[in-house]
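Example 5.3 — Precorrin-6A reductase
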Amino acid sequence: MKMKRILLLGGTGDALRIARQLGAEHVYSLAGLGKVPDDLACSVRVGGFGGSEGMARYIEGEDIGLVLDATHPYAAQISANAAQASRAARVPYWALRRPAWQPQDGDDWRMVGDWTELTDALAPFRKPLFTLGREPLAHLDEIPPHQFWTVRCLDAHEDTPRARILAARGPFTLEGERALFALQAFDVVVSKNSGGNATEAKLEVARERGLPVVMLRRPELPAADREFERVADLLEALQAAD
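Solution (predicted structure tokens):
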């Protein structure tokens, strides 16, 4: 794809789909978590920028003409830095805003805004499944005496007497989630409202089993010059801008 040089901020499956359409002159930037792709035509940059000012300097120094934000919906600080850096460097800032999941009939969602609210909501339960990423790993010494946690995240980590750590990367199938839930007998699921279908199966299994879901609210994200809900729409817009 030929156009002004793109800085693609990624780390999600959606971002990788976009990166696979970019030519050698463009840059795919990753924070460094998880697997770094080695089969892309575009350049891959790993690591931070040093806040919005550092990103603005990078944009100007690398002659970037468009910033594409395809980070996770909960990567609020990265998105804020990207929006500010784009304004400072006077380049367009486009964002892929994946639609949030919506509760369906039979769902029992308990919405929370932060870790304190989350732990309060979990107080009645004994065997939660955490699907929040790495954050619960910082709280393994805070597990209440009546609870045993299962934490699913990208990071490998030793189990503890009070927690099981499952290092796994989506997408997760409905059959696989059913088997996991049946084996571990979770009584509550803890989730971010990530949207998309890669990790949605856990919500369907929770619905099937009548389990509540403690759902972390999405953070507020900065407005973009153009926002897209689907990768296909963003790629079409890039093609039209060629």
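Remark. The domain at 6-99+219-241 is CATH 3.40.50.720 (Rossmann fold).
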